[in-house]
Amino acid sequence: MNYSLNQLAIFLKIVETKSVTKTADYMHLTQPAVSIQLKNFQRQFHVPLLEVINKKIFITDFGKEIALSAENILNEVNAIDYRLMKFKGKLTGSLKISAVSTGKYVIPYFLSDFLKKNEGVELRLDVSNKSKVIESLEKNETDFSLVSVLPSKLKLNKIDLMPNSLYLIGNYKSVFGKEPLNKSILEELPMIYREEGSSTRIAMEKFIEKSLISVRKKIELTSNEAVKQAVMAGIGYSIMPMIGIRNELQNKQLKIIPVKGLPLKTTWNLVWLKSKKLSPVAKTFIAELEKNKLKLIQQHFSWIERM
Fold first, then answer.
1. pLDDT recorded at residue 66
2. Do 285 and 94 meet the contact criterion of CB atoms below 8 Å apart?
3. Would you say 159 and 269 are in contact if contact means Cβ atoms under 8 Å apart?
4. For 96, how many CA atoms within 13 A lie in the half-sphere containing its CB?
5. Which of 120, 141, 210, 246 has its CA 20 to 30 A from that of 87?
6. What is the pLDDT, as a whole number, of residue 85?
7. Which residues in the chain land under pLDDT 70?
8. pTM of the entire predicted model
9. DSSP string spanning 69-106?
10. How far is CA 289 from CA 26, 71, 168, 229, in A?
11. Could you tell me how far CA 6 lies from the centroid of its own chain?
């Protein structure tokens, strides 16, 4: 037998995800690289570890036994790393965070100093839509989640990180004055929406419903980046968070259109289950975040007030 720890980790992740694609994404590898490592790992056994039927992966009984052994081996390796880092007086372990898509403009700045200070901490950051973020939180698959709209059905602890402001945005050639327009202007504009369940979409729809206006939906897109591109192309207008359009405003590709009742105000919250047993890494991160968040906001986000 001549398998590597990397092959064990790849096989274990395939057993967990039943997918080469998801394994490649998780481990930051290409799909061919994962397939080659899996093939080389399988060659060392005369009994199949998995079967592919109708493009679906099924783990054999023998494969399940090997996966259990692989998990034990990797846990022991991690334990050795942990003991070494602990002996050196360093924090070690993993920190798992899920964030809604627009949160990718926020969460890295609250993590950077912590990760530089604690080199033994491994970050697993999953950026996805709101429904998947809440699902990962509910299933206890993550330590923390970054959201701007709190789920009502879960019992959560939270830290208020910073305000989130949403404005009506058009491309730079949009011709409007500097005086705030009446909300009814939205009835005349082709509006671009995020997908169902998006926090931005929820805030936008609540504003429209409260304003008692009827809006013409032009298009629905599944990411903030896609919405930006559509607005810059002149396809329509959208209500978007300021945090994600800094460069486009500075480069004169987008502009804020003043409307009465805007901006909408929400809050970025870092949340976790009240029943969650936080690891030493998670506890340390929370303590340092509480201590440093105001300094980090001033350092990285003071530009928002100047726009």
1. 93
2. no
3. yes
4. 13
5. 141
6. 64
7. 1, 82-83, 85-89, 307
8. 0.69
9. HHHHHHHHHHHHHHHHHHHTT--EEEEEEEEEGGGGGT
10. 26, 32, 31, 33
11. 25
* Pairwise CA distance, residues 48 & 60, whole Å: 7
5-87 under CATH 1.10.10.10, yes or no: yes
Q: Given 3.40.50.300, 3.40.50.720, 3.40.190.290, 3.90.1150.200, which CATH number is that of 163-266?
A: 3.40.190.290
What is the reported pLDDT for 243?
A: 92
pLDDT of residue 12: 92
Cross-strand bridge partners of residue 97: 125, 144
Between 3.40.190.10, 3.40.980.10, 2.60.40.420, 3.30.300.20, what CATH number should domain 92-162+267-306 receive? 3.40.190.10
pLDDT in the model for residue 89: 64
pLDDT of residue 158: 95
- By CB atoms closer than 10 A (0-12, 13-18, 19+), residue 303 is exposed
CATH 3.40.190.290 residue spans of the chain:
163-266
Q: Which of 122, 100, 95, 132 is nearest to 289 (CA)?
A: 95
pLDDT of residue 162: 94
pLDDT of 280:
86
Question: Where are the alpha helices (H) located in 105-197, listed in sequence order?
Answer: 107-117, 130-138
